[in-house]
User: Fold these one by one.
Assistant:
Number 1:
Amino acid sequence: MKIALAGIGKIARDQHVPAIAGSSDWDLGATVSRSGSVEGVPSFTSLAEMFEAHPEVEVVSLCMPPKPRFDYAAEVIRAGRHVMLEKPPGATLSECHILRDMAAAAGVSIYATWHSRQAAQVAAAKAWLAERALRHVTVIWKEDVRRWHPGQDWVFEAGGLGVFDPGINGLSILTEILPDPVHLRSAELLVPENRQAPIAARLAFHHTGGAQISAEFDWRQEGEELWTIEVETEDGAIRLSEGGASLHIDGKEVAQVDGAANDGEYPQLYSQMAMLVREGRSEMDLRPLALVADAFLLGERRVVAPFEF
Ligand code: NAP
């Protein structure tokens, strides 16, 4: 199937272009970007021009930041094409609901991707937790924003999500692996005095079974990043680390099993998109974004030192 990529920036180049090139499902037919392009692929600055020149493009994968994404997604759906969304699927929950309804009415597939859920050991962690009673869950997502978002001021603008841009990856895994739903109880947002969005956050969740669940996100981490979820149950404990790539059960490392889980996060997202299109289905799990929205609703704001890249 012919696919077009829109928003040719860091993640498009790092992950989407290689994942599409390595897939037998997809052929990159065009790019749409105001300034970026991919060598050897026809490039356009608007979706309308691209569809005019390449009516055979069936799917558009959107890689721009969340705030401008809605207008692009709505245009793709109105053009009767399927649409794939980078995480987070939008800047607000209500726009995501509208896109989901538009796609259903137009009979096209929409896929809100969560790349971290495709990490190698996430499915194993979910299976291990399925029958167990939770006691404590701690999510730690700490990384250096200068390393992962060099010079990207949009991440600190309103709608850029701040530290929730990586933190939502932890929440996407949390909502995938826990056997029970959780909701936010309280939040603390640390916002640099010269920015709109938090550079760090602490969250506490309510769990129906009474487990203590918390999350800590920090973009001021220097050195190695920490992308870890620790779960203590009544029957053992697990540690999912390296963003879901590594799993320890009761302190013992679990070997990765051969299979699709080892193909890489983005190749699996593109396989899933191919399946959704073939089966005429959509996937739009908005739980991670709902938790982030609730953190902004409930969060107490603390002003911290200014931040410059
Ligand atoms: P980026 O490089 O700053 O932006 C991607 C591209 O989006 C830009 O090159 C730009 O292309 C386009 N763009 C920017 N602002 C726009 C606007 N107002 N209107 C239309 N297009 C605009 O960002 P990124 O790091 O690739 O992140 C993009 C998305 O991927 C985010 O949702 C992020 O959470 C997600 N993501 C990022 C990473 C990562 O490591 N950076 C990892 C996983 C997921 P043109 O100027 O050429 O149009």
Number 2:
Amino acid sequence: MAAQRPERPLSDRRHLMITGGSRGIGAAVCRLAARDGWNVSLTYRSDATAAAGVVADVQRAGARALSMRADVSDEAALASAFARSVAVLGPLEGLVINAGMLGPSGTLLDLTAERIRRTVDVNVTGAILTARDGARSMALSKGGTGGTMVVVSSTAARIGSPNEFVDYAASKGAMDTLTLGLSKELAAEGIRVNAVRPGLIETAIHADAGVPDRVARLSSVVPMGRGGTAEEVAETILWLLSPAASYVTGAIVDVAGGR
Ligand code: NAP
């Protein structure tokens, strides 16, 4: 029989960690999490100024926050970030596996081994390491209190992103499979695991991939006729993390305007 989750006073702010929380979807999750009663730890890769801005916003909303520089593909750096966040904010109860990257847009014929390895290192290896470290902290069998994880996949996982980023799409396909496996493996540990698949969302990831106008250019292929906002994705993530989704695990939720 699965162990029961201990009761906690409602007044306690719980600890949510978000990888890649300094910008875009991750930053929106941090801000909404403060609204919804979480304390927030976030990781980032390089943009310390953006991370500090998110920390200040979360603190202004009345929550505790800290940021840690850690590339998710660096196992030791990631483990240090988990250890520090738990030492400062207490036991982890929520985790958003969000950090991800998109290489320059192009066809299969343009891809190099170096670029493919980096995409897989960050988007796949980094996500699995993040899930592992989170589970080590939350699992009932390890003395944790259980919790919830949300994996940030992409509609690319089911569209395939031909002529744009097939390596990225393949890495996001792995996120869907990871979500299914983790939800089954971790259920008895008191951990729910779900995923969101954002569609075309207005963040800097497109400009970083060399296509700043991508969302505007492709919005006509979205049934709702527009790109989405980081906040629209974050609201779905916050719902999956909340007790309102207490019987939801292994779900992959499209936040994509019908695309
Ligand atoms: P973004 O605006 O580019 O933000 C990416 C965040 O991840 C930043 O905080 C960045 O930190 C961090 N990051 C990047 N590489 C990292 C690494 N190796 N280690 C640790 N942190 C790293 O991207 P976004 O659009 O919000 O995307 C967030 C997630 O949503 C990604 O997994 C992406 O694949 C997914 N997604 C996005 C869209 C979309 O249209 N925007 C659609 C579907 C899925 P720094 O600021 O320090 O670099």
Number 3:
Amino acid sequence: MKTSIEKSLNDQINAELYSAYLYKSMEMYLHSVDLPGMANWMNVQVQEELAHAEGMMQFINLRDGKVTLAAIEAPKTEWKSAAEVFSDAYDHEVKVTGRIHKLVDLAIKEKDHMFNNFLQWYVAEQVEEEDNSITLARKLKRAGDNVSLLMQVDAECAARTFTAPVIPGTKVGAPTAP
Ligand code: OFO
């Protein structure tokens, strides 16, 4: 794998781990304001982000590259409301989408078709990542200070469970051999 690709993918691993760290911080904030369902939703999101990073690490290893872990930036720790949390999550996902698209541009520039093919799962995943957070951000904005509506959204979020995503070409989410 070319050095430029190895470096950019290592940077993206750091960004995915930062996403996990940011969502963990959001989870802790939501616990602190007694919204355990939304905290659960964020906990699932943390696990998703770790799976995204793991898939990239496995891809680098498969291509005989080297994963180099770097410091993870400290996340924001306070928000004004749950609505602000999910609105921030959406803005963050839009940024991540932009980063993934830049990686695709690099794969095309370097004519690395394996890398491009690998990235397409992440391109598709970002549609869901953006939609999940904007849907909740909108619901919470509509709920405003209405406690019963807020509790309704919290109950919905409590039902979210983690299923490891299946990332093609990696062992992430792959069924274990009998
Ligand atoms: Fe890894 O997709 Fe969210 O950040």
